[in-house]
């Protein structure tokens, strides 16, 4: 519309110039009014060119304004999508934690916890048995079951005889692996620490027992060349540290600090703790 108005305006001015140039009164000023009027065609084209420049500038300004509006709309849409993504991610984290919590409370996992405790409590009662269990987490240099530990283990086990314990002990350790994998998955929910802390996974009960295994895993890996050569780097210590952080607990700065916590823990002592653990307190 603006282009047509400019063209009509220029053409109108040119037409008026021709009409005026053909008037008799113009002869007073020029002897060639008609030819002078038609020579104004040059002016017409020059005017059209000028009008084209103006039209181009106007179109560019209009296009830039539309582009700016579109960019603003796109930016607003991106912000809305980012907010929606954050909300969806938060809900996904919440659902993941709730799914894990439902697993923890399931009847099957209750059996996993019971069987894992059938290993962990004897580990508290016998440091020698605990060394055996820790060695079995690695593929190299695994220890044989120390029969001499049965005297202490028997006081912390539901099994009545050594043969009964040996028949079930390996299956118990497999369930301990499942329990550790469960807490590993739980600790991997980095964006949901507040949700983890608000769910009761009985971590205060598991904490000294998991730390007991984790610390000795690290020691065995560091001190055994065959384990380092053929085994993988243990990860349980990082798991319990992340869980400590999620529950607002300060991780132990040294292994001696943990062992002092361990030997003084009332529940650990109730399990019939092996006094040999006192030697680890430094």
Q: State the domain count.
A: 2
Count helical runs: 13
Secondary-structure content class: mainly alpha
| Computed Rg | 43 Å
Q: Please state the overall shape, judged from the principal axes of the Cα atoms.
A: rod-shaped
Proportion in helices: over 70%
Our estimate of the beta-strand percent is under 5%
Specify the biggest β-sheet. Answer: none
How many strands in all? 0
The secondary-structure element order is HHHHHHHHHHHHH
Q: Distance N terminus to C terminus? A: 92 Å
For the residues shown, what is the average pLDDT? Answer: 82
Residue ranges: pLDDT <50 for 5 or more in a row?
none
Give your account of this protein's structure.
The termini are far apart. The longest helix is centred in the first third of the chain and has 65 residues, at 41-105. This protein has helices spanning 2-21, 33-38, 41-105, 107-125, 127-135, 150-153, 162-187, 193-197, 203-223, 225-230, 236-246, 255-264, 266-270. The chain is mostly helical and 282 residues long. It has 13 helices and no strands. The chain has two domains: 2-22 and 29-83; 107-281, no CATH class. The mean pLDDT is 82. It is rod-shaped, with a radius of gyration of 43 Å.
């Amino acid at each position: 519309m603006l282009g047509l108005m400019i063209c009509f305006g220029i053409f109108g001015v040119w037409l008026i110039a021709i009409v005026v140039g053909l008037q008799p009164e113009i002869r007073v000023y020029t002897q060639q009014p008609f030819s002078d009027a038609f020579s104004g065609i040059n002016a017409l084209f020059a005017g059209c060119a000028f009008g084209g420049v103006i039209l181009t500038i106007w179109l560019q300004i209009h296009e830039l304004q539309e582009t700016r509006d579109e960019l603003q709309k796109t930016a607003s849409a991106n912000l809305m999508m980012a907010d929606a993504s954050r909300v969806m991610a938060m809900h996904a984290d919440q659902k993941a934690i709730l799914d894990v919590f439902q697993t923890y409370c399931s009847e099957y996992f209750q059996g996993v916890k019971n069987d894992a405790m059938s290993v962990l409590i004897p580990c508290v009662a016998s440091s020698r048995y605990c060394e055996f269990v820790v060695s079995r987490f690695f593929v190299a240099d695994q220890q044989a079951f120390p029969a001499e530990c049965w005297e202490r283990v028997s006081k912390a086990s539901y099994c009545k005889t050594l043969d009964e314990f040996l028949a079930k002990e390996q299956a118990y350790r497999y369930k301990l692996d499942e329990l550790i994998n469960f807490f590993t998955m739980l600790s991997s929910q980095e964006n949901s620490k507040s949700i983890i802390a608000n769910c009761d996974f009985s971590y205060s009960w598991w904490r000294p027992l998991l730390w007991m295994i984790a610390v000795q895993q690290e020691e065995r890996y560091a001190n055994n060349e065959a384990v380092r050569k053929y085994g993988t780097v243990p990860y349980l210590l990082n798991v319990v540290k992340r869980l400590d952080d999620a529950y607002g607990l300060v991780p132990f700065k040294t292994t001696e600090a943990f062992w002092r916590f361990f030997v003084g823990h009332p529940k650990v002592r109730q399990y019939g703790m092996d006094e040999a653990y006192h030697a680890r307190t430094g």
